[in-house]
């Protein structure tokens, strides 16, 4: 194990902040046999630590050493993903139950205070998380070329921050679909009398809409759709969009085509989730959409996650009694491990602007 970790510049018992401090010898056998699932679970159980967990994870991703330890759990997930549609409609409630419905108090403590954005901020010219998230919302609106009076469909609307921003600042009406009832309740309260309609429904239920939307937007939903459903998702947006309209997709992306996610993430954070690749999205949109713009600002997710971690850690004394110390270690591993994934460039953050090919031109916005 020492030899394997040394390939990433990590020393067991070393003095660098990213070095591994093992407190329980069972860690080694578990890691060798179960790979990433054991790495996360043993951290939750306090078997090991690292002062700079985010940097340790960055080094692990950059070096590729995770492939040198047991990954049968991930292989099993990949096999199931080939045979089954793990993101079918009947399974979509799992991620809401396991993750998004944990408690609004966690997200209110962790996220930006004004817009409650649980996706990557846009840090160009921003010094704070609040400003980075407002930048992101305005970037989306400018890319969509919103005009007063337009009707916008928001698929996977989160806490309603984007719908609120669009209605209040660009004077458009919004219809928002989201499977998380607590998030929708929060969004309805925040939006008040603004022209926003929320539906506590799976995104596929939007097929019943009248199909007269000037714009369609999806932020943070594509990671839950799955390869078997990318085409039908893109067809749905195409059907609901008026001629001359634009469709924006904001999603985490991967450098390779995966059929499943990391085994620990699948079990504890995002059940049935998987990030798309360039080729998967490209194949799914072929013959259907025109790619007007593809913008990658994945490094901004590292900053966003670190800001979320600082907020969560600062607020933990008020959350500890309700959630417990094992949850704290789980959430820390999730946030800092994810930051390492983006810092190492294993993960990307993409915004795609698509059209039906019936507009004269599109000038990319940054």
Can you give a write-up of this model?
With 366 residues, the chain is α/β, with parallel strands linked by helices. It has 2 domains: 2-70, no CATH class; 89-355, 3-Layer(aba) Sandwich (Rossmann fold). 46% of the residues lie in helices and 16% in strands. The chain contains 14 helices and 9 strands. It has helices at residues 2-6, 26-44, 53-63, 72-83, 93-100, 104-110, 129-143, 161-170, 181-191, 230-240, 263-268, 278-285, 299-323, 325-343, and strands at residues 21-22, 48-49, 151-155, 173-178, 196-200, 213-219, 241-254, 290-296, 347-355. The strands form 2 sheets. The chain has a 7-stranded mixed sheet. Strand 6 (213-219), helix 10 (230-240) and strand 7 (241-254) form a beta-alpha-beta unit. The longest helix has 25 residues, at 299-323. 48% of the residues are buried. The mean pLDDT is 93.
> Alpha-carbon distance between the termini?
45 Å
Helix-strand string: HEHEHHHHHEHEHEEHEHHEHHE
Total DSSP helices = 14
Largest sheet: 7 strands, mixed
Estimate what percentage of residues fall within beta strands: 15-25%
Supply the key terms.
2 domains, two-stranded antiparallel ribbon, 14 helices, 7-stranded mixed sheet, Rossmann fold, 46% helix
Provide a concise account of the structure shown.
This protein has helices spanning 2-6, 26-44, 53-63, 72-83, 93-100, 104-110, 129-143, 161-170, 181-191, 230-240, 263-268, 278-285, 299-323, 325-343, and strands at 21-22, 48-49, 151-155, 173-178, 196-200, 213-219, 241-254, 290-296, 347-355. By secondary structure, the protein is of the alpha/beta class. Helix 10 (230-240) crosses helix 12 (278-285).
């Amino acid at each position: 194990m020492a030899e394997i970790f040394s390939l990433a510049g990590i020393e067991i018992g070393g003095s660098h902040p990213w070095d591994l401090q093992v407190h329980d010898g069972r860690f080694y056998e578990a890691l060798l046999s179960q790979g990433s699932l054991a790495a996360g679970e043993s951290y939750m159980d306090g078997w090991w630590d690292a002062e700079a967990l985010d940097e340790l994870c960055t080094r692990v991703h950059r070096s590729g050493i995770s492939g040198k330890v047991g990954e049968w759990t991930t292989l099993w997930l990949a096999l199931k993903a080939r045979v089954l549609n793990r993101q079918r409609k009947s399974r979509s409630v799992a991620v809401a139950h396991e993750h998004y419905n944990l408690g609004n108090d966690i997200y209110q403590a962790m996220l930006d205070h004004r817009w409650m954005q649980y996706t990557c901020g846009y840090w160009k010219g921003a010094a704070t998380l609040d400003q980075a998230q407002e930048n992101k919302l305005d970037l989306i609106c400018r890319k969509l070329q919103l005009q007063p009076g337009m009707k916008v469909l928001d698929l996977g609307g989160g806490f309603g921050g984007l719908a609120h921003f669009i209605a209040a600042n660009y004077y458009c009406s919004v219809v928002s679909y989201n499977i998380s009832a607590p998030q929708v309740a929060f969004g309805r309260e925040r939006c008040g009398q603004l022209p926003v309609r929320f539906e506590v429904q799976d995104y596929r239920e939007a097929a019943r809409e009248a199909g007269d939307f000037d714009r369609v937007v999806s932020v943070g939903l594509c990671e839950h759709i799955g390869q078997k459903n990318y085409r039908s998702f893109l067809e749905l947006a195409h059907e609901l969009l008026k001629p001359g309209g634009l469709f924006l997709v904001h999603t985490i992306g991967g450098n390779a085509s995966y059929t499943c996610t990391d085994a620990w993430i699948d079990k504890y954070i995002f059940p049935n989730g998987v990030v798309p690749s360039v080729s998967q999205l490209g194949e799914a949109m072929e013959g259907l959409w025109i790619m007007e713009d593809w913008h990658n600002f994945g490094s901004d997710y590292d900053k966003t996650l670190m800001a979320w971690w600082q907020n969560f850690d600062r607020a933990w004394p008020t959350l500890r009694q309700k959630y417990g110390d094992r949850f704290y270690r789980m959430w820390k591993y999730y946030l800092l491990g994810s930051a390492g994934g983006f810092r190492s460039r294993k993960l990307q953050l993409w915004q795609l602007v698509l059209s039906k090919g019936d507009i004269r031109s599109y000038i990319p916005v940054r």
